[in-house]
Amino acid sequence: xxxxxxxxxxxxxxxxxxxxxxxxxxxxxxxxxxxxxxxxxxxxxxxxxxxxxxxxxxxxxxxxxxxxxxxxxxxxxxxxxxxxxxxxxxxxxxxxxxxxxxxxxxxxxxxxxxxxxxxxxxxxxxxxxxxxxxxxxxxxxxxxxxxxxxxxxxxxxxxxxxxxxxxxxxxxxxxxxxxxxxxxxxxxxxxxxxxxxxxxxxxxxxxxxxxxxxxxxxxxxxxxxxxxxxxxxxxxxxxxxxxxxxxxxxxxxxxxxxxxxxxxxxxxxxxxxxxx
Length: 276
Ligand code: NAD
Prior knowledge:
Elements: H1 10-22, E1 29-32, H2 38-49, E2 53-58, H3 63-70, E3 73-76, H4 82-95, E4 102-105, H5 120-148, E5 151-156, H6 169-189, E6 194-201, H7 207-220, H8 224-232, H9 244-254, E7 266-269
Parallel strand pairs: 1-2, 1-4, 2-3, 4-5, 5-6, 6-7
Helix pairs in contact: 2-9, 4-5, 5-6, 7-8
The chain binds nicotinamide-adenine-dinucleotide.
Nicotinamide-adenine-dinucleotide (NAD) binds at residues 34, 36-40, 58-60, 78-80, 106-109, 129, 156, 158, 201, 203-204, 206-209.
């Protein structure tokens, strides 16, 4: 044999081909929620790059143009409304002709306030968007995955699914709940070839975090860089923000056949924060 192939034995070439196919997501239909921005957008790009068909969801209709430019299909819904989540699931199943292979529950938002001043309505909406909607989408899409004997659900939780910080009671309650949902559904789905995992990142450089940096800078009279260094990265071992692409690559890996033994897990992408 000549060229690169000449450097490998026949068995080694077969192993390489097998590894390649175990990382292949061509032919899969993927629904990513809250994908008009930040981590969800990076996840959508990563899946598109791997040859998957992406149903890009967001509340923001402006994301439709973005989806079109990327080669994804757009689905709009406000996950704060249970009926809209049911409609989203039905629309995704219709597009996927009865099945969605991969569900990435990513949409979310932050609100910072003392618990005794936390507006009840915002608290309830945060739980709906970040916990009830992932349950509703799982409930609707899991049967198709089970039926075909293969599926992947990735819940974008947070380091705040396992630790707490003050003034984020709704976010932390939702993310702790999402990890519980992940573990329970993982046990139910495992016999059917479906894995369910949570990813738990520390601070990722997205609009959600840029807004928090600006708010903290104002509140403490600090520069943006000082907020990142002195407040956000203080407990981290690796002193830098995470890039959305780094989270996306990890999510992509969890959805390959190569990651078929990982389920019910909280994947800590936390810069060494919880090693303390
Ligand atoms: P982002 O603000 O860039 O993106 C969030 C997306 O969710 C937006 O496109 C927004 O339109 C959408 N969304 C918000 N409310 C919605 C609703 N009611 N219905 C439908 N869509 C809605 O934020 P991000 O940082 O990319 O966050 C994505 C996920 O990652 C969130 O679940 C967040 O909790 C989680 N996360 C973020 C970080 C971080 O540091 N950025 C860390 C850990 C976990």
